[in-house]
Structures are given as structure tokens and as C-alpha cells.
Amino acid sequence: MNTSLKECILKATGAADAVEIAKIQDLWSGYGTLKRFRLEGADRTTVIVKHICPPGEQSHPRGWNTSVSHQRKLKSYQVEVAWYRSWSKMCKASCRVPQVYALESHGSEICIVMEDLDSAGFPLRLSAVTGPQMRSCIKWLAHFHATFLGKQPEGLWETGTYWHLETRPEELQALSDRALKSAAATIDKRLRECRFKTFVHGDAKLANFCFSKDGKKVAAVDFQYVGGGCGMKDLAYFVGSCLHEEDCDEQESAILDYYFEILQNIVRSRNTEIDPAALREEWRALYSFAWADFHRFIKGWSPGHWKIHSYSERTTRKVLDSL
Description:
Elements: H1 2-13, E1 17-26, E2 32-40, E3 46-52, H2 67-87, E4 100-106, E5 109-115, H3 131-147, H4 169-174, H5 178-192, E6 198-200, E7 209-211, E8 218-220, E9 227-229, H6 232-242, H7 245-250, H8 252-269, H9 276-301, H10 310-322
Antiparallel strand pairs: 1-2, 2-3, 3-5, 4-5, 6-9, 7-8
Helix pairs in contact: 3-8, 5-9, 5-10, 6-9, 8-9, 9-10
């Protein structure tokens, strides 16, 4: 697809030429690449190209090389195309996402030509955050969830997140925590059947946020697992991606208060039929369920993972006790 890849870039941008200048990263399990191209004779200097090209032989960093895993990945890229084609334009500056210039498919190969967020004012990628930087991401999540409240996820995952129970039967089977294994379906059902639903990003970890130089603004990338659900799944997962266990505990109330203050203010300002207080009450009670839901996945997927810690265990036990 190399020749048609370049043709796709030129057609989408009106450039006279496109030259690869950097491979940003390989996609998970060798399913393609993410690259930066320099443009000549266009109204922008660079673009990012996500080239999905499933491997002949599957490889997985943790050994999950199965047909279930392969089909899930293939669908995730189809979902990402649907997201950019049908939904991403609803995201305003408050929940910034990259603009997409082209979506091309050739069999199982997919080419997504998109805005270079570095050039757009979001050049920083962080492995650790300050309080203000973390709040920038939480603010993004609140605006994103408010934007899609009540929407039906057509073309997306019916239930978003990459760890959704229905798509992870092998990891559930491998789970040795019998109590959590037994309660997994109940926890999943409680989250799926919440009254207030929105779209969740589905992989809202720190690595998928791009920061402005001052850290006050963020944009998000990687929408393979966007779909319907409770916003707490994104929030719990994000917090777990950037805080140590003691901070997760100490900052829990402050994080939730900040998130819901923003979310409720947005809902009020839009004069919808949604009751902001009822929304907060339901979702606040589901935060621990969202945490337990991801904990179920990570304990089955990678039992020695660093995210399995005392806060996660305590939070999950509280959920199990409540059932």
C-alpha cells in the first residue's frame, strides 16, 4: 500500500509531495505504524498517518495471540474509522481531538491521515503529571462525556473500553480471584444498565493525551475503543494510569468533586432534560464499580501488573461486599 498511501496523503492535503520524516511508533501487536510526514506545497507542514496493516502472523507482548484477540483488534480499527467519519466533528475545543483529512480502506488495510497535534499546539507527551495537568485531562473527560450524553453509539462499540467483559472471555477464564470472577458479570451489568449513558473514550490513559506547552490544554488520540457506557469507566482508568496507589486513595474525593463540578455545570448550561444532581448521584456510586471492572481485566490479563495494588484491591472488595 506504500504507493497508494502517498497518493492518499497528497489527495487529502493537496500537497505536491509527502516525505516520511519519523516513525512515531508501531501499533499494538504489530498491526501497523504511526508515522509523521512532511508536506511540500500544502497549507500545513506535517500530517500524521495511521496505517493499519494486520500481520500475517500475530504477535502479542503478553502472549494473547488468539482469534478472539485478532477479531477484537480488527473491529477496533473499523470503530476508529466510524468515529472519525461520523462523530469526531462534535468535539469542540473543550474536548479537542485531531482533525482527519482522509480515511481509506483497502481490504484489511486502513489509512487514516490526520492533523499533527504537535504542530497544532499540543507538542508534549507526559509520563507523569502535576495536579493542574491532571485536572486538564479530567476537564477534557467531563466535556467529552457531556457532549455525548444520551447519544446512541452507532458504528462504535455498543459498550466502550478495551477491557469490556464480553470481549475478554479468555482473560476472565485466566482470572484466579474467584470472588471477583464470580461477580464480574454483575459488575459489568451494573455499569451497562446505568440510567445515564454517554460515549467513553475507552482507552483514556495518560499516554493518549497530548498537552500544550503550558499544560493547560489537552487533546486526546486513539479512538479504537470508543463506545457507549458510564463515564466513570474513563475517569477511573485515567486516574489509575497516572497516580500511585496512595494518591488514588488520598485524592479520590477531590478528583470526583472536580469532575462532577464541571460535568454538572455543562449539563445545566445546555438546558437539557438531564437532572445534573441525579447524574452525579448515579455515576458517583459507580466509580468504584468502574475501578473493579478494570481490576477484573488486569488481574486476568497480567497478574503481576503494577496497577494491581492495595487501593485497587480495597476498592474492589468494597464492591464485592456491597453485592
